Amino acid sequence: MKPFASKLAGLFALLLLPCLAQADNMVTIYDAALDNDPVLGAARAGHKARKQAVPQARSQLLPNITAGASTTWNERSFPVPPIQDTNPASPTFGQFVDVPDQNFNEHAWQARLTQPLLDMEAWYGVGSAKATVKQSASLLAATEQNLIVRVIQSYLSVLRAQDLLDSTVAEEAAVKRQLEQVQQRFDVGLVAITDVLEAQAAYDNSVARRIQADGDQGIQFETLRTLTGMSHESLDRLAASLPIIDPSPRNEEDWVNSALGSNLNIAAAEAQLRAAEKTLRARQAAHLPTLNGVINHSHFSTGGPSFIGNKIDTTSYSLELSLPLYLGGFNHARRREAGALAEQAREQLQDQRLTVSRDTRNLFRAVATDVVRVKARLKAIKSSESALDATQTGYEVGTRNIVDVLQAQQRLYGTQFEYADARYSYVNNLMRLKQAAGTLVVDDLQELNNFTDAGNPVKRQVLLSNQ
Fold it and tell me: What is the mean pLDDT of residues 223-239?
């Protein structure tokens, strides 16, 4: 039974190993970024703080109660000459006696309830606070939406760096083979030394490009750490089946109209303008009278002599009307400030609309261009492959030189990388277009994640010093 148990445990370990070594994909990166991205964390904390503006503003319309207390020790002495006792019942009647000192304690407390009955400045202040919270909520939603774009861009930057590395590695291997063949042909006297030198120079340059690409790949992996707070060792590639199609709808104006109605930055700017207008109304109402209802209760107790009693309780009910007549120009300055800020918010809203409209049009055209460019790059790969075959044949029969062959190889690998880069540009521009239009959601990232290839992961390169 022990050998069988050992085999069974080994089989279970083999089955479990692929799961433990599974590469990250866009969804796992995004989920980690939701919990660890400091930019999103700061936005959440900021929104949580700004939400308190409403209860703070509303408190100016609600009752407020204050209380106070005091205690006092009194020591009284009378620096006067003795006086004659005129009380017949006193043992010292008719005699001159000193006036005694008085030492006693007094204490008091009071409570005051104030209910604002008319305060237009505070009323408009509540509306301004609510608009400010809506602005903050829109900015938070924009930050959450932007996290989707940042994750996709950082993820694709790693894949792009890997494709560049793959291209340089393949070019290096091809040039090395070409160098070996040229060296052999030179050894038997079929080519001149210049061909060997040209091939050697091309090989050295390809090695340098491969080393640079190797380092850049590791650097791009590090960008993911700023989003997730953790290291990632491998990522799933984009599958070849990723559809490269025109944006839907295919009408540019439809995208612009959607952006003007749904873009989160525009929504935030609109809320900012409403808040500024409410603040202006509040500042304009600052010259109006305010009316408060007040209930005040006080208690006083003394240990000393008092002709009205040792304990006094008083309760009063009153209406307090306040009218600011002149405060040194304070209210007038605040009105002018609020008016200027409202105008600023109005201009910022207009700028945001124009910017979003421009970006949406540009991104729509960029996506449409990317679709055509990807198809063109794919055709260019086939053309470059045919050109390389023809150049190599010409070199073998003596009609082309080694430089032509090396340049044809470099064009082929460059074209292959440009094809991959065009696909990444398409994805990035499409996501940014949806972001500008206000339609980008997590489902878009999940749909894109369906076109990743878990069987062909990108693995992080180790440091060159460790190779």
Answer: 92
Contact 415, 381 (CB under 8 A): yes
Give 61's contacts (C-beta < 8 A, 6+ positions apart). Answer: 116, 119, 122, 123, 126
DSSP class of 100: P
Half-sphere exposure (Cβ direction) of 39: Cα atoms closer than 13 Å: 16
Task: Identify the CATH number of the domain defined by range 24-56+122-280+331-466.
Answer: 1.20.1600.10
Lowest mean pLDDT among 133-142, 191-200, 269-278: 191-200
CA dist., res. 312 & res. 447, Å (int): 78
CA distance 268 to 236: 36
Residue 435 contacts residue 221 (beta carbons within 8 Å) = no
CA-CA distance, 245 to 457, in Å (whole number)?
Answer: 25
Contact 381, 254 (CB under 8 A): no
| pTM summary value | 0.83
- Residue ranges of domains in the chain: 24-56+122-280+331-466, 66-117+291-322
Distances (CA, A) of 202 to 182, 195, 308, 359, 382: 12, 11, 112, 42, 23
Rounded CA separation 125/61 (Å): 10
Contact 422, 370 (CB under 8 A): yes
Residue 120 neighbours by CB under 8 Å, 6+ apart: 282, 285, 288
Q: What is the pLDDT of residues 27-46, one digit of tens each?
A: 999 999 999 999 999 999 99
- Token pair of 88, please? 């017949």
Mean pLDDT over residues 271-286, rounded?
Answer: 95
Tokens of 272: 């900012």
Measured at the CA of 382, the angle between CA 378 and CA 383, to 5 degrees, comes to: 110
For residue 147, the 8-state DSSP code is H
**Average pLDDT score over residue span 350-379:** 96
Q: What is the mean pLDDT of the chain?
A: 89
Task: Report the pLDDT value the prediction gives residue 143, as an integer from 0 to 100.
Answer: 97
Closest CA to 371 of 257, 248, 263: 248
Which residues, including other chains, have CB under 8 Å from residue 195's CB and lie 6 or more apart? 182, 185, 186, 401, 402
Residue 13 has pLDDT above 80, yes or no: no
For residue 313, give the 3-state DSSP assignment.
strand
DSSP 403-459: HHHHHHHHHHHHHHHHHHHHHHHHHHHHHHHHHHHT---HHHHHHHHTTEEEEEEEE
Residue 8: pLDDT band (50, 70, 90) is very low
